[in-house]
Amino acid sequence: MNTLDKVLFEALQQQQQQQLWREPLMRDGPQGVYQIIEGKKYLCFMSNDYLGLAHHPLLINALQKAATQYGVGSGASHVVNGHTVLHHELEQALAKLTHRPAALLFSTGFMANLAVISALCQRRDVVIHDRLNHASLLDGTKLSGAKLVRYRHLDIQDCEYKLQACSAARRKLIVTDGVFSMDGDIAPLPELSRLASAHDAWLMVDDAHGFGVLGAQGGGTLEHYDVSIEQVPVVVGTLSKAFACFGAFVAGSETLIETCRQFARPYIYTTAMPPALAGAALQAIAISQRPEEAWRRAHLQDLIGQFRAGAEKRGLTVLPSNTPIQPICLGSNATTLAMGEKLKAQGILVSTIRPPTVPYGQARLRISLSALHQKEHITQLLEALGAGFGK
Predict the structure, then answer these.
(1) Residue 391 has pLDDT above 70, yes or no
(2) 199-202 contacts, C-beta under 8 A, 24 or more apart
(3) Which domain holds residue 273?
């Protein structure tokens, strides 16, 4: 074994010993409430397909139609060769949905966060993070060279203290998830926006898990709180969760978007998303805006209420969340993995989340609900959890 493989092998062994090993399940068939894994059918609570659009026939048709018209690859980056009419129309639709003047597409949410933060901030600046922010936000700050400061989760007083300590910075950017992906709770955007205004800072929200789900029209945490562009000038969202496609965007003023187009290296130097995916995303947004499709968000809320009430009745401790993300924190990796296996033995798939995705000592089951789940599915999950926990 050469030196490289020897060093890497030792690190992999340590990963296994700490019960942090990750391996993707091999799924056969489309994303849906039920998944076929190694020939066996499971009831799935692992997907971020919150609105249940991943196998919608209109999305499939839109993707096929766009692929027939535009082909498969974009050929190059947006600014070189890759921008089509569909990309342009999707940016316009996203700007409209977020009530911002403009939007800019990216290939992934991770890439969007790297791009936006590094385009806005440099070495003399400071970026102030909620402690539970997504890894891409932290990595975007590291890429920018700005000072990275973290405040206690959802703690407005601690955020203000950190702002006061950084008053000499050239630029100050407060960054938060809209809906926290592993906890399911929602950032206090009105309070954060007041802090930003008082301390001459900007507020950026990564709304990957709120966009499409929260608000009467699916506008996410922005619509949930009815906050303006003056309050939240920088918004990032994804198309891979509630809208069941792929890609991401930043929305804001024309000046912000042009700044990202001109200076965001992950935008300039990455091939644009395939136009067929842009066509599918346009269809997903259109579906989400139809009055007859409002049942998806309403049904989700009913399922969330049913699950939380049933969990409380059984004495299960679920983290406070009014979103489709319903976590049960178990602490140890071993306990979490064991409970995941118990549920799998009963025909149910639930994500077993361990560090570094969550802080050490906070391993958990992450239950993710979809609009395609039915009440009997929630009852089946609750009964399986009760049996697994002996309650």
Answers:
(1) no
(2) 199/160, 199/163, 199/164, 199/167, 199/172, 200/172, 201/128, 201/163, 201/172, 201/173, 201/174, 202/120, 202/171, 202/172, 202/173, 202/174, 202/233, 202/234
(3) 57-289
Active site residue 181: yes
The question of whether 209 is a catalytic residue gets the answer yes
Q: Report if residue 1 sits inside a domain.
A: no
Confidence class for position 135, pLDDT limits 50, 70, 90: very high
Same domain, 29 and 48: yes
Q: Which of 118, 181, 193, 288 is catalytic?
A: 181
- 214 plus 87 within the same structural domain: yes
Catalytic residue (choose from 209, 224, 373, 377): 209
352 and 276 fall within a common domain: no
**Please, which pLDDT band fits residue 20 given cuts at 50, 70 and 90?**
confident
- Which pLDDT belongs to residue 19? 87
**Within this chain, do residues 314 and 333 fall inside the same structural domain, yes or no?**
yes
Mean pLDDT of 288-304: 95
Number of domains in the chain: 2
CATH value at residue 307: 3.90.1150.10
Is 368 a residue of the active site?
no
Please say if the pLDDT value at position 1 is more than 80.
Answer: no
